[in-house]
From TrEMBL:
Residues 53-65 have a biased composition (Polar residues). InterPro entries: Homeodomain-like_sf. This is Transposase. It comes from Candidatus Williamhamiltonella defendens. Residues 45-65 are annotated as: Disordered. It comes from the Bacteria.
Amino acid sequence: MSQPTFKAELKREVAHLVIEQNYPFRQGSEAMGVSISALRDGVKRSMSEKRGQTISQGKTMTADQQRIQELEARLRKVEREKDILKKASALLMSDFYNR
C-alpha cells in the first residue's frame, strides 16, 4: 500500500508541532499516517527554511549554492543601478549641451 501524499501546509503544521511544542515524532507520524523517517525529513526541511535556506526540487541548498544565489541577486541589483546611472548621465549631458 502506498503512502498518502499531503499538502505542504499540513506538513509544515506537523513539523511546527514537533519543533516548537516538542510533539513526539511517533504521535505526529501516526496522526499524519506517514513513517517516522518521512516526518523527520519534513522537520529537517522546516528547520532549514527557518535558518534561511530554501528548498529547491526537494533538496536543501548548500552554503555555496545559497551564496551563489545571493551574489547573483546582488549582481542583478548592481547592474540595474549602473543602467540607471548611465541613463541619468546621458540625460544630464544632453541638458548641458542643449544650453
